[in-house]
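Below is a filled-in request sheet from our internal design queue. Each sheet records the structural input a requester submitted and the sequence that came back. We keep these sheets so that new team members can see what a complete request looks like end to end.

REQUESTER: design group, bay 2
PRIORITY: normal
MODE: inverse folding
CHAIN LENGTH: 257
BACKBONE (tokenized):
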């Protein structure tokens, strides 16, 4: 058995005679976190929540980041990090040459192939942006959801200054189990989508905009004060949080927890 603790797989192996009861007990008795001194990695998070621990890369010292990535990859066979820089990618690649980096979303990851994954991509989440400048945050949301097993449809650059662009994609957003609406400026996109669909809408304000947008605060306040129903709002530029929540909603809709 590898380092990843998967209770269902352990029980199946006991049932099939692949491992003994005593061996299974040793695996299940492991501490639920990996003590690293500077970090305590939550190795049982997927068991409790259905989601592995994710690395927030920004601000981490180089040696810490490398050690965390190595440990999570060894335990889980894959690892996912957000807010990484090009320099961090080059650094981690020296130790884990298979690491992948997306400069748009700033995601740093090693991902199993879909054939190897225990959670296949299911359902449908639509990730929409008001403008092209909002795409980095939207991609953080979309790629987070995909990593955790959600099928994602991207509907980009459909802001309210050209409403016909959004209306041309109404069928896609109405069929989705959840819609992520990513917008800066005044943040009106979430309210418009909220009035078009029966499914939940996750609004993501971005820091895109001119001076009075206040680095996303204006969009945040617009979204919080939306008159449309069924809208939940995450923090400014928090694509990861939106992708995670969208996956939870999508799993519930598909009844796969």
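RETURNED SEQUENCE:
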């Amino acid at each position: 058995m590898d380092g990843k603790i998967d209770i269902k797989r352990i029980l199946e192996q006991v049932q099939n005679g692949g491992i003994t009861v005593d061996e299974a007990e040793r695996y299940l008795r492991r501490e639920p976190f990996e003590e690293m001194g500077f970090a305590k990695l939550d190795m049982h998070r997927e068991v409790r929540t259905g989601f592995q621990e994710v690395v927030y890369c920004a601000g981490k010292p180089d040696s810490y980041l490398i050690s965390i990535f190595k440990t999570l990859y060894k335990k889980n066979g894959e690892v996912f990090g957000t807010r990484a820089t090009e320099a961090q990618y080059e650094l981690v690649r020296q130790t884990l040459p298979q690491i992948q980096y997306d400069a748009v979303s700033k995601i740093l990851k090693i991902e199993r192939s879909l054939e190897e994954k225990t959670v296949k991509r299911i359902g449908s989440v639509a990730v929409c942006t008001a403008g092209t400048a909002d795409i980095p945050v939207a991609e953080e949301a979309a790629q987070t959801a995909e990593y955790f097993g959600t099928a994602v449809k991207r509907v980009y650059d459909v802001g309210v200054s050209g409403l016909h662009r959004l209306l041309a994609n109404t069928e896609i957003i109405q069929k989705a189990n959840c819609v992520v609406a990513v917008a800066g400026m005044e943040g009106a996109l979430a309210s418009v989508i909220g009035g078009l669909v029966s499914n939940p809408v996750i609004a993501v304000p971005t820091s895109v905009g001119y001076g009075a947008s206040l680095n996303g605060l204006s969009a945040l306040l617009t979204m919080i004060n939306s008159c449309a129903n069924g809208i939940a709002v995450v923090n400014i530029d928090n694509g990861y949080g939106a992708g995670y929540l969208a996956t939870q909603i999508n799993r519930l809709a598909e009844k796969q927890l």
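SHEET NOTES:
- The radius of gyration is 20 Å.
- The mean pLDDT is 88.
FILED BY: M.R.
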